[in-house]
Specification:
Number of strands: 9
Number of helices: 5
């Protein structure tokens, strides 16, 4: 039986980046594990961690993105009236988190799919990766997967919670409204082959 959007626990995606409650892996500049510590402590110290970002594609190749409130610290241009709280627009995002104690990157990816997208993909593919830079200190890995057969796209037609966007819409947003995209999402869209990941998977399966 396919899942539909009869009810949806919106609180599940109120925070898409795990940094507080978990114990995460801290790594050195060569991605060698050093120790485990609470995520909030690692974040405060700006320590390098292994970050995982996951993307879910429909059978037609569209991307499921999450919508979350714009934080009060967001740049004024993306807030109506130029001040926090005045007609805030949603921030489009991909689920992301950090490798926790006892996890490999693939384990983290599957956990994120289950927690935020409510599915277990039959096939998981690593799409891209990047090391630390000026804008972020982490070793980031992007995974892509096709929607499982028992999960219908209508499940993600929940106003204010998800959007389902095609390649043209995504590239247009990056070009014209990048401030409305979570940095991880903007980075993912720019990766070669990312928007064709699901079609490739359909041909191989």
């Amino acid at each position: 039986m396919k899942k539909t959007a009869k009810s949806f626990p919106a609180s599940k995606i109120s925070v898409l980046r795990h940094t507080v409650a978990s114990t995460c892996m801290v790594v050195d500049g060569g991605d060698t594990p050093l120790l485990y510590m609470p995520g909030v402590q690692a974040a405060r110290q700006g320590l390098a961690r292994r970050q995982v970002v996951v993307a879910l594609f429909t059978p037609e190749g569209k991307l499921v993105v999450c919508r979350q409130p714009v934080p009060s610290t967001a740049p004024a241009p993306i807030l109506a009236g130029g001040r926090p709280g005045a007609g805030e627009l949603p921030l489009l995002a991909l689920p992301s988190g950090f490798v926790e104690a006892g996890e490999a990157r693939e384990d983290t990816a599957m956990r994120l799919y289950a927690e935020f997208l409510f599915c277990v993909p039959p096939v998981l593919r690593q799409v891209a990766s990047m090391g630390p830079g000026q804008e972020q200190p982490h070793f980031r890995t992007l995974y892509g997967a096709r929607m499982p057969a028992d999960l219908h796209v209508s499940f993600f037609h929940a106003p204010g919670v998800f959007s389902v966007l095609d390649a043209d819409e995504l590239t247009g947003l990056v070009a014209d409204a990048a401030e409305l995209l979570q940095p991880e999402l903007a980075w993912a869209v720019g990766q070669p082959g990312f928007l064709g990941a699901s079609k490739q998977g359909a041909e191989e399966e």
